[in-house]
Amino acid sequence: MAERLYLDHAATTPMRPEAIAAVADGMARWANPSSPHAEGRAARRALEDARARIAAALGWKHEVILTSGASEAIALALGRAKGVRIAVSPTEHDAVLRAAGDAERLPVDASGRVTLPEPSGERRLFAIQAANSETGVLQPLDRIGDAIRAAGDLLFADCAQSAGKLPLPDADLIAVSAHKLGGPPGIGALLVRDFATLEPSGGQEQGYRGGTENLPGVLGFAAALEAPRDWIEDAAEWRAMLDAAILAEGGEVVAAAAPRIPTIAAYRMPGVASAAQLIRFDGGGIGVSAGSACSSGSLKPSHVLEAMGWYARAAREVVRVSFGWNTRGEDVRRFAEAWTAIAREARSRAA
Fold first, then answer.
1. What contacts 63, CB < 8 A, 6 or more positions away?
2. The CA-based dihedral angle spanning residues 44, 47, 49, 50, taken in that order and rounded to the nearest 10 degrees
3. How much is the pTM?
4. If we measure between CA atoms, which residue out of 73, 232, 220 comes closest to residue 159?
5. Which one is catalytic: 147, 236, 275, 294?
6. Are 23 and 303 in contact (CB under 8 A)?
7. Residue pLDDT, tens place only, 97-117
8. How many CA atoms lie within 13 A of 295 on its CB side?
9. 208 Cβ contact partners less than 8 Å away, ≥ 6 residues apart
10. In sequence order, what are the beta bridge partners of 280?
11. In the annotation, is 294 catalytic?
């Protein structure tokens, strides 16, 4: 039997060897970093060193609040921002939409890119994902950020999919996640330009998050960020090759004309439901998904594709393919061959 092929790295990606080694080292540093004794102080030094390494690897010169992942960072940012009204893109990850509640929804075009409204006179916090977790579409956050700041508003960027792959945007608050880039699960961070924008709640992390710090996770996070990223250039070639192969077989590339992160793409196979495709791919030893891991088990059409104006039937024929640090060119070619075989079989049955 052929080796299993994993192309769902946007859901989670295997830990890098460097991160595994760092987590093991952290397990040996068992003391509580908040304890005053020598063991605790040693753990604190390791924690703060890793925090500085995370900031340096991301090119971030401001504050870093360590969290249990991007979802907690999102909840902290949207739940504790001071004196602002929240506005979100309707194509955001479910974690953002849950945290935002009934916040203002921003208009998007057919590719899911945001159109900013006119200034309202009330200070707003705009929550806009850097790279969409289902389609890979990139928002022009630097341009958006300039407009937001000119109006006296704030920008929160969910960079769970882009951090460690692309430069961070110039934002006031940024959520990042370790397990999306080869680090361990259960660790992430909220990057904060100015603590004055957030209401503290007491506890650890300078009073912005309670709970004993996850030293092994933090060390693994830092190690994963410091690992080589040269594979991103290869990913752009792989995705272009896959786009061309699927278009040649009558498939549709979601948001093909929009700028997209090289690691994520969504494809429609006309006439074949996403669920049927996933069963066929999985049976053939290939793991992909029908959207973000937090919502792909739902029977509802993707809220991302719905916001982009897709009909429900067409949206239910889309699967997501995503690459990671250990993806190879032959993996992508194998998926293209499998996609082609399923599409041709469906066409022959319909003829």
1. 191, 192, 193, 194, 195, 206
2. 180
3. 0.95
4. 73
5. 294
6. no
7. 999 999 999 999 999 999 998
8. 21
9. 65, 76, 80, 195, 198, 200, 201
10. none
11. yes
